[in-house]
Amino acid sequence: MTEPTHDEAHGGALGARLNWLRAAVLGANDGIVSTAGIVVGVAGATQSRSALLTAGLAGLLAGSMSMAAGEYVSVSTQRDSEVAALAVEKRELRDQPEAELRELTGLLEERGLSREVAREAAQQLTARDALRAHARVELGINPDELTNPWHAAWASFTAFTVGALLPLLAIVLPPAGWRLPVTVVSVLAALVLTGWASARLGAARPGRAVLRNVVGGALAMGVTYAAGSLLGAAGA
Ligand SMILES: [Zn+2]
Q1: What is the pTM of this model?
Q2: What's the gap in Å between 155 CA and the centre of ligand 1?
Q3: 97 Cα–ligand 1 center, Å
């Protein structure tokens, strides 16, 4: 799953929010595909509703917890390196303020300001809050808004769970004869939606993204159903 990152180049709250939204859609997509694969596979082997419910629920919990743990680890690492970079910056600002002012001036010049204006801007930014200025211009991070690993973990957990609930309910609620068609159709329809949304949020054209997403999900269900049917027929 793509994790939200600080948006260096276009640094803005909007970019960050779109990243989060996209991560949520992709998390839900993972929940849909993996849980659909599990329940359809089990449905290939058995008619038992309790077996379907158990397998689907275990898949939902295992998936959402593994996503949350992975996200927690990755965001914690990112946060650690941001905190370390800020500490280095703080020390440099204390030990060599002149060099840091030159550095900031140079960075602002690279962004298109004239030498004089860059120097003036660097002086003003340094006088107001030197660390924040260097954090934003040099490191591309906002020291007040470092990503919280718990928030990221919770968001992944929720997104995956929401996605996983769809195939789980679709397989256990309908009467036996309707389980597979209801599940396959609702899963593929949901994958059209998540594929479209993630493409739009990533500013890509939706057509191919939707197709890939639907084919991927159909493949996952086809493979697990075949495996489940073989095991079921073998009396395993
Ligand atoms: Zn610096």
Answers
A1: 0.79
A2: 33
A3: 9
